[in-house]
Amino acid sequence: MGKYDKYFIEKSLKLPNPVEKVRRSVVQHAFSVDGEESAGLPGAFLMESQMVVRPTDPTMLRSRPHCHDFDEYMVFASTDPEDISNLGGEVEVWIENERHVITKSTAVFIPKFTMHLPVNMLKVDRPFMWITTANTTKFRIFQYSNAPEFANESARSGLVEITVNDKTYQTTGSYLGFLQWQMEKSRKERGM
């Protein structure tokens, strides 16, 4: 066993969709690491890659905008070796209240505490890659948008209020779970 073998992560957090689900799914998960816990490596950060195989069904609920307490990249990359800049599709990305349509290979930087989503695959001429990465060792959603058009029961359930620097936020169970995980990790590191 080599010194760096542990850095070659072969087990994905999300497994590829079974063939029958791929026929209905917008994306086929290629690989996912939710930070150091799923990677089993201290300091490993979030990374997810998926292949976009078909447009978003217009009848599906739109994803509710949310923000994180970490920076994030969303990368949309062509799979055409003859024209790597041509995405092979059309993607709608919302950042705050701005709509952007992507048709070329593009990296979108999302600063922490910036509301983003939905992301809709408007057109898919050929499969392309959608890669997300962030400078965090554990995924969590800090806050959902309060815009009524995105409100749905699953997004509202489990919301709690938290105050940071005299500002109150409605935050999520995933964020509180992260805080608990972080405190437990800190206790273990200090031998408590």
List the helices and strands and how they pair.
Layout: H1 19-22, E1 27-33, H2 35-39, E2 46-52, E3 66-67, E4 72-77, E5 86-95, E6 98-104, E7 106-110, E8 116-124, E9 128-134, E10 143-144, H3 153-156, E11 160-164, E12 167-171, H4 173-189
Antiparallel strand pairs: 1-2, 2-9, 3-10, 4-7, 4-9, 5-6, 5-8, 11-12
Identify the notable features of this structure and list them briefly.
192 residues; alpha+beta; five-stranded antiparallel sheet; 12 strands; 16% helix; 38% strand
Describe this structure in words.
By secondary structure, this protein is an alpha+beta fold. It is 16% helix and 38% strand. The chain contains four helices and twelve strands. The strands form four sheets. A five-stranded antiparallel beta sheet has the order 1-2-9-4-7. Strand 11 (160-164) and strand 12 (167-171) form a beta hairpin. The chain is flat, with a radius of gyration of 18 Å. The two termini are 32 Å apart. The mean pLDDT is 80.
* Spatial shape: flat
Average pLDDT, all residues: 80
Largest sheet: 5 strands, antiparallel
The percentage of residues in β strands lies in 35-45%
Can you write the helix and strand succession as a string? HEHEEEEEEEEEHEEH
| Structural class assignment | alpha+beta
Distance between the amino and carboxyl termini: 32 Å
Q: What is the chains' assembly state?
A: single chain
Radius of gyration: 18 Å
**Low confidence ranges:** none
How many beta-strand segments? 12
Count of individual helical segments? 4
* Fraction of residues in helix: 10-25%
Question: Can you list the strand order of the major beta sheet?
Answer: 1-2-9-4-7
